[in-house]
Design brief:
Order of helices and strands of chain B: HHH
Number of strands of chain A: 0
Strand content of chain A: under 5%
Chains: A mainly alpha, B mainly alpha, C mainly alpha
Mean pLDDT of chain B: 86
Number of domains of chain A: 1
Distance between the termini of chain A: 17 Å
Distance between the termini of chain B: 45 Å
Largest sheet of chain A: none
CATH class of chain B: Mainly Alpha
Oligomer: heterotrimer
CATH topology of chain B: Helix Hairpins
Helix content of chain A: 55-70%
Shape of chain A: elongated
Helix content of chain B: 55-70%
Number of domains of chain B: 1
Low-confidence stretches of chain B: none
Mean pLDDT of chain A: 78
Radius of gyration of chain A: 19 Å
Number of strands of chain B: 0
Low-confidence stretches of chain A: 148-154
Order of helices and strands of chain A: HHHHH
Largest sheet of chain B: none
Strand content of chain B: under 5%
Chain lengths: 154, 113, 505
């Protein structure tokens, strides 16, 4: 039976979160992909992507959210981002230098241009987003375990 | 010039907070304030009077004097480094609370000598 | 000249760290194997870099093909090669040791992930030729070390890690502030370009920046009065991490970065035949030497004692480099290398003692010498090295420092150096007597745990280098290894000019 202290925030917040979650994620990805054209890039876009997931956890409350999202997925995302960036850097060796731009440059100001920079931005987004979300996950799960349970569930 | 002096004052405030407060969390906040003050100063160093943002909107378009874009990229890196450090210090502080039962620096003194 | 080895020295540990973190849970043996393999590769690369420097004198690598001063460059000269060998050799032997020691901690994959990250950061610090890149790698290595100090998550480890973390972050902020002021004055971040711009007349900002760097890098190097974090942080860390922190981290982040910036970029300190002493370094050096050894005399906790001795020995190195004659600089760098070897060995010994007897207190450790032959033998060798007894490597470097100080006319510095040496000898006699020869109140001879083979192998290898270290002064080896390093500092602000002219081809 649901008691007064239900998990997470009110029903209005939960409904709105369900609607806006995807939009925030999309906005973050937009900033990442246009990193070579507009301000932003990997770091800022990664933080926004992480924030969309943090938004989810905050709105639905720790106990039910962590049953659906795996917090180790964040670590995997983070390590994959780092390894992806390193792979790009090593592939740059084929063009002669570590980290050099080895893909065709394309037309200026088009979306698919500037060689390997958008790919690097994507890798950084995974890394920063995954890292920030992993930090948040560790801190909230840790608090949940150390705080004295008021419902007696954990 | 006054902008730089204000940044340095903010930095000193952050350091003062970090050395004089007794609560672990307030020490972390002090370090974070100092960090942001340094980042702010870095961005201000790149400002050019009457400058425009360093973005090319269309090919071949002539801009006025642009502000220096290098500090912007470096400050992004520095902010992320600050994030990592603050997160680590916060995690350590939480664990200290679990072990010692207090956030007060004067009570967390097992190591001495 | 350029060589792909240089970015690989940073990329390989970085990749190893993330692979460890990613896959370490599925494959049990992966973290150990990764640690061993990566450190073996980087140690081999470091030795190869010495031969590269011998054949080409200096190497430049432009990242991404962007040449200096626009792009970030990696530069490899004699001093970098010396630091690379020191860092990676110690890391390799510590990785062998950690295989046995870290069995009692729960998460080896996190340990190796952080360890390899710290190694990548240190390699980056010594290889880079760009000021902000130096700061970024410095932060990578520092944050990894804060996490490693807290690795055991016991009460003392966490307290020490917090203290170290806050102080280290404030030091990094001072360094960043210095870099910002330099950038505002010279509009460039490339070390060589900055040196050229400052030589032309950057006068008013240089003293302020020197002060900021002395404070920031001085804290990383644990010089007195910035040493307060070290006696808490180094004992609390697990023994292999203590060895890495005391053995290489304070050297590559603190001493190397400081002397590289002060000598090659700012040009406030110089090396000349008649001796151009840089007084702040001499004062800090003598202070660290004396305060470190005096505070060590009263310690009964073995690792805390070793930590205070680290402060003292780094004081020796800074004093020698501050004196400013070529011989003194050579002696200081030689002592830097030697100290990495014997201090790491001492910390690894204390770790194996702690594992065997369950305590770090010398008064309760009595008479284990008979039961732990490898540990006690290597502690004996390392103690004689640090106290400066012939023919071990510490003797040669300390003698050289004292001779150089006297020759340059700094008799008072030589006097303090000799006094500190005598006190060091007294301190280690206490360690040997109480720890190994018996005469305390220990009753636990029967309960000693066996020392794993991997730990023994590492201890023996370190001891061999201790014994053979004096050979590095032979003229043929000296010109190969120590000579180019001293020349790199002697080159002053012109040294890094090869970055601008050497280019990328």
């Amino acid at each position: 039976m649901a008691d007064r202290r239900e998990d997470g925030m009110s029903l209005i917040v939960k409904t709105v979160t369900r609607l806006t979650l995807g939009l925030i994620l999309l906005y973050g990805l937009y900033i990442v992909l246009h990193g070579h054209l507009t301000p932003g890039g990997g770091f800022a876009g990664g933080v926004i992507v992480a924030l969309s997931l943090v938004h989810l956890v905050l709105a639905f409350g720790g106990r039910s959210a962590w049953k659906r999202i795996s917090h180790s997925g964040a670590s995997v995302m983070e390590a994959t981002g780092a390894l992806g960036f390193l792979a790009l850097a090593l592939l740059g060796l084929t063009a002669g230098f570590f980290l050099s731009n080895f893909l065709p440059e394309g037309r200026a100001f088009a979306l698919f241009s500037a060689g390997s920079i958008p790919l690097a931005n994507l890798a950084i987004c995974l890394k920063v987003g995954g890292g920030l979300f992993a930090v948040f996950a560790i801190l909230t799960i840790f608090t949940a375990e150390t705080a004295s349970p008021d419902g007696g569930e954990r | 010039m006054t902008a730089y002096i204000l940044c340095l004052i903010l930095f000193s405030l952050g350091i003062y907070c970090a050395v004089s407060k007794r609560n672990l969390i307030k020490i972390i906040v002090g370090v974070a304030i100092a960090e942001y003050a340094v980042n702010l100063m870095f961005v201000l160093v790149g400002y050019r009077i009457g400058g425009v943002p360093p973005i090319f909107a269309a090919p071949g378009e002539a801009q006025g004097a642009m502000v220096d874009p290098l500090p912007h990229a470096l400050v992004l890196t520095s902010i992320v480094i600050g994030l990592a450090t603050t997160a680590l210090l916060a995690a350590i502080a939480m664990r200290i609370y679990r072990k010692y039962g207090t956030y007060d620096v004067n009570e967390i003194r097992e190591l001495r000598g | 000249m350029t060589h792909t080895l240089m970015p690989l020295m940073i990329a390989v540990p970085l990749g190893g760290a993330f692979l460890c973190a990613l896959m370490g849970k599925r494959t049990r043996a992966l973290p150990d194997a990764m640690g061993f393999l990566v450190t073996l590769l980087t140690a081999a690369g470091a030795v190869y870099s010495v031969s590269l420097v011998k054949s080409a004198d200096t190497l430049v690598y432009s990242m991404g093909g962007w040449r200096a001063p626009v792009g970030i460059v990696l530069s490899l000269d004699g001093l970098t090669a010396l630091m690379l060998v020191t860092v990676n050799l110690v890391a390799f032997l510590v990785a062998i040791y950690a295989r046995g020691y870290m069995e009692r901690y729960t998460s080896k994959r996190l340990f190796y992930g952080l360890f390899l990250l710290m190694l990548a950061g240190m390699n980056g610090v010594v290889l880079t030729g760009d000021m902000f890149n130096l700061f970024v790698f410095l932060e990578i290595a520092s944050v990894a070390s804060y996490a490693l100090v807290a690795f055991g998550t016991g009460k003392q480890e966490l307290e020490a890690a917090f203290k170290y973390g806050v102080m280290g972050t404030i030091a990094s902020l001072f360094i960043l502030l210095g870099i910002i002021l330099l950038y505002a004055r010279t509009s460039t971040l490339n070390m060589a370009d900055m040196a050229a711009a400052l030589a032309g007349g950057g006068g008013d900002v240089v003293p302020l920046v020197t002060g900021l760097f002395l404070a920031g890098f001085g804290l990383k190097a644990a010089l007195v009065p910035f040493h307060a974090w070290l006696p808490d942080a180094h004992p609390s860390a697990p023994a292999p991490i203590s060895a890495m922190l005391s053995g290489v981290l304070i050297k590559s982040l603190g001493v190397y970065a400081m002397v590289r910036v002060l000598y090659n970029v700012l040009g406030v300190a110089e090396v000349s035949e008649t001796g151009s002493p840089f007084t702040p370094l001499i004062v800090l050096g003598i202070l660290s030497m004396m305060v470190g050894v005096v505070l060590a005399l009263g310690q009964w906790d073995m690792k805390r004692l070793l930590a205070y001795h680290s402060i003292s020995q780094i004081g020796y190195v800074i004093l020698a480099i501050g004196i400013g004659t070529p011989l003194a600089v050579l002696a200081g760098l030689f002592h830097l290398f030697n100290h990495s070897i014997f201090k790491s060995l001492l910390f690894l010994d204390s770790g194996s003692l702690e594992q065997a007897t369950g305590t770090r207190d010398l008064r309760r450790m009595a008479g284990v010498g008979r039961k732990l032959p490898v540990t006690s033998g290597s502690t004996l060798i390392a103690s004689m090295s640090i106290a400066g007894i012939p023919p071990f490597n510490g003797f040669w470097s300390k003698l050289l420092i004292i001779v150089a100080a006297v020759r340059a006319g700094h008799s008072w510095s030589a006097f303090w150096a000799v006094l500190a040496s005598i006190l060091t000898l007294a301190s280690f006699t206490k360690v040997l007597r109480y720890g190994f020869q018996g005469g305390g109140a220990g009753k636990r001879l029967r309960e000693l745990a066996a020392v794993p083979l991997s730990m023994k192998v590492a201890l023996v290898l370190f001891a061999v280098i201790c014994i053979g270290g004096g050979l590095l002064l032979l003229p043929s080896l000296r010109d190969l290894f120590l000579g180019p390093a001293a020349d790199a500092l002697a080159g002053g602000t012109r040294q890094l000019g090869f970055v601008l002219t050497g280019g990328a081809s």
